[in-house]
């Protein structure tokens, strides 16, 4: 007799799960037996009974819904190593998802959950990750997960109750953590933040570990942070970025969607051609440079636009109300600046400094949070004080 709590899971689901786990093991993203067993045990379709995919071929790029009740071969679709969009907001943007299993496994391996440890998760989403963590810690009552969306929280709670038991699901702002069950041995955030919220470090137990996506205005970083027994907090970064959706909170400033259009109304202060030997704008596609630039010169954002034969890349700084526009026409690039701030010079200075530092990638940085709750990034001989930046949702 099958004594698993998932008796109703079909054999085809178990086979698809096993295939996914074997794939993750072969990639090296699952490395420990406990995490392998947890992924083998938890049926993803219980937590993702439907998802959305965007049809890029359609002019309007409409979302198509797939669900377990009416979609043929849903089991194979659900066990792909892909992130699955589970909610779309009124603007047509994804607002919740089930993370890519590879990313889940990498974060859980980094988190290193041991039986009996107390866990805090920021962003329950579907509840799938919380279920995996419950298997690792051994008791649903040791897992607390915060979700700002009440509807998502309720759906996740029902799915968790029917699989692993009564996980503590809290509806609230994840930026504040959840002090009622603190201190936590492990904290994981499945939403990105530009700065580590003070509540998270305060609620992390001495000897504890925190894993999150530290994402400034331009690039993502996979941060693993530890709190020493004396309270000292330090961290390092993995090579792979995470690319999570931003944490929804009123505690972080938000940039408006009309930013580019508005800034282009500022007087033009500079016009320049670009030599074919210039690293710009191609270097703006380099993740390591974008990672450096966002901390060296905070509040700088990027966007691009295609209009007929012309391609535009915009770099803009909200604090200084200045925008740098690169435009390509007939294969040649040129640039101009709207606003009073010397943004083009600042971007070139950042590039020169990055070159002197030998083009460091995120894994070459280390992070510390000092007694004054200041977050400092160190790379080579350079130290960078991180400040709050506006995020765009």
Automatic annotation (TrEMBL):
It holds the Pfam family PCMT. It comes from the Bacteria. Keywords: Cytoplasm, Methyltransferase, S-adenosyl-L-methionine, Transferase. SUPFAM superfamilies: S-adenosyl-L-methionine-dependent methyltransferases (SSF53335). Signal peptide: none annotated. The keyword Heme does not apply. CDD domains: AdoMet_MTases. It is found in: Cytoplasm. Its EC number is 2.1.1.77. One of its GO terms (cellular component) is cytoplasm. Belongs to the methyltransferase superfamily. L-isoaspartyl/D-aspartyl protein methyltransferase family. This is Protein-L-isoaspartate O-methyltransferase.
């Amino acid at each position: 007799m099958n004594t698993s709590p998932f008796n109703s899971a079909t054999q085809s689901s178990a086979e698809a799960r096993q295939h996914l786990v074997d794939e993750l093991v072969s990639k090296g993203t699952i490395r420990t037996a406990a995490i392998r067993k947890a992924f083998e045990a938890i049926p993803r379709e219980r937590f993702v009974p439907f998802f959305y995919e965007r049809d890029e071929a359609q002019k309007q790029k409409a979302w198509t819904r797939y669900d377990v009740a009416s979609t043929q071969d849903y089991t194979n679709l659900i066990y792909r190593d892909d992130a699955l969009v589970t909610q779309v907001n009124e603007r047509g943007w994804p607002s919740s998802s089930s993370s890519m299993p590879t990313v889940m496994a990498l974060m859980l391996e980094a988190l290193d959950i041991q039986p009996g440890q107390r866990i805090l998760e920021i962003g329950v989403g579907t509840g799938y990750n919380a279920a995996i963590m419950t298997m690792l810690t051994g008791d649903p009552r040791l897992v607390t997960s915060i979700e700002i969306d009440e509807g998502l929280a309720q759906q996740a709670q029902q799915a968790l109750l029917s699989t692993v038991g009564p996980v503590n699901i809290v509806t609230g702002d994840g930026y504040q953590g959840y002090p009622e069950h603190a201190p936590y041995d492990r904290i994981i955030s499945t939403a990105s933040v530009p700065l580590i919220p003070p509540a998270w470090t305060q609620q992390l137990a001495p000897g504890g570990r925190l894993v999150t996506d530290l994402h400034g205005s331009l690039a993502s970083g996979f941060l693993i942070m530890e709190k020493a027994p004396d309270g000292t907090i330090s961290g390092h970064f993995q090579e792979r970025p995470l690319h999570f959706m931003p944490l929804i909170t009123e505690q972080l400033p938000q940039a408006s969607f009309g930013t580019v259009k508005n800034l282009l109304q500022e007087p033009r202060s500079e016009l320049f051609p670009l030599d074919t030997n210039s690293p710009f704008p191609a270097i703006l596609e380099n993740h390591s440079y974008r990672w450096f630039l966002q901390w060296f010169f905070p509040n700088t954002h990027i966007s691009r636009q295609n209009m007929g034969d012309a391609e535009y890349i915009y770099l803009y700084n909200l604090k200084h109300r200045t925008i740098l526009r690169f435009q390509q026409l007939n294969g040649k690039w040129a640039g101009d600046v709207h606003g009073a701030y010397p943004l083009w010079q600042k971007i070139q200075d950042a590039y020169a400094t990055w070159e002197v530092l030998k083009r460091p990638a995120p894994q070459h940085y280390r992070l510390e949070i000092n007694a004054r709750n200041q977050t400092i990034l160190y790379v080579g001989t350079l130290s960078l004080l991180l400040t709050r930046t506006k995020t765009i949702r």
